[in-house]
Amino acid sequence: MGQAIAGVKDFSDLIDLASARMGGKALIASDEFFAGKENLLKPGRAIWIADKFTEFGKWMDGWESRRKRVPGHDWCIIALGRPGIIRGVNVDTGHFKGNQPETCTVEAVEIDGDPGVDRLLSPDVKWVQVTDRTTLNSDSEHLIPANGVAARKRFTHVRLNIFPDGGVARFRVHGEVLPDWKALKGKEVDLAAAESGALVIACNDMHFGSRHNLIMPGRSVNMGDGWETRRKRGLKGGEFDWCIVQLGHRGVIEKVEVDTNHFKGNFPESCEIEVCDARSGAEGFEAEKQNWVTLLPRTKLRASEQHFYEKELGGAGKAWTHARLKIFPDGGVSRLRLFGVAEV
């Protein structure tokens, strides 16, 4: 099951298992007359263009079904980008004012592989309701915790049910990625990747870019798709910004990549990486009480470039659970990769 998540107070701070960037896909919807289901998984909040219309009506940046004139309700089935434990969802009705659904529920199921739409619609598939039925307000985000039925269960697909019809701008499924670590035994993986169940649990500053971007799939698409801190003033020397990554699984780190892609006038002067082994896990993780060991000594960085380190690394052969990236004195890093082998 991997490690419990330390230092997370709000489930919305966990990885969005359904996001398009993680590989999530809106597979089928009962109705998408006014606006397509794929909009649900787009990054960011929905936008509003007042005078934009289509042949079907007002253009909306979300999923919107027609007004239902028969019994029943509308729904959308989504394949999670990575299987995992669902801790809660965010149902965002941004810009839907008077045409939002009255209520919603979320159901989930575990079917590995590519089951196909016919299988997912089969009456043999036993969907489990993982949220309580919730009233939806107009133009609002709704953070809905998963119920007790979902606890510690692994899911691969979800079904968003809206009653009876209407529009939802964005849909997020926050939780913990659960890779099949037995299948990955002995293989090199990025232990710091979101796809591996890693999470950036803390940082001292993320004024311009979220810390979570550091472990997202692929290279960054622009400067906003990275972790960037504000400019330090009145430096006294030796100051740095930092973030802490909880690895997806305890493992031996053999290679490091620090990518400053798109950061050209605002990349850090240098960086350093420390690691620790906090196998006790979760609830009581306190950075200042850990025995941090230098993995990568302070090393100069260059603008908009992938930096790879292997022979420079310390702590050879030892397994770690957390890594701390320090950047001197401030700036932006787009991705951090910690390649190694999990101790399964």
Structure notes:
With 344 residues, the protein is an all-beta fold. The chain contains one helix and 23 strands. The strands form five sheets. Strands 1, 2, 6, 7, 8, 9, 10, 11 and 13 form a nine-stranded antiparallel sheet that branches. Strands 14, 15, 17, 18, 19, 20, 21 and 23 form an eight-stranded antiparallel sheet that branches. A two-stranded antiparallel ribbon has the order 3-4. The longest helix has 5 residues, at 116-120. The protein starts with 14 loop residues before the first strand and ends with a strand. Mean pLDDT is 94; it is low at 1-7.
Brief summary of the model shown:
The chain has one helix and 23 strands.
Keywords for this structure?
single chain; 344 residues; mainly beta; Jelly Rolls; 2 domains; 9-stranded antiparallel beta sheet; 8-stranded antiparallel beta sheet; 1% helix; disordered N terminus
Indicate the structural class.
mainly beta
Oligomerization: single chain
CATH H-tier superfamily of the largest domain: Galactose-binding domain-like
What portion of residues belong to β-strands?
A: 35-45%
CATH class of the largest domain, named Mainly Beta
Q: What is the count of β-strands? A: 23
Computed CA radius of gyration, to the nearest angstrom: 22 Å
Measured as a percent range, the helix fraction is under 10%
Distance between the termini: 11 Å
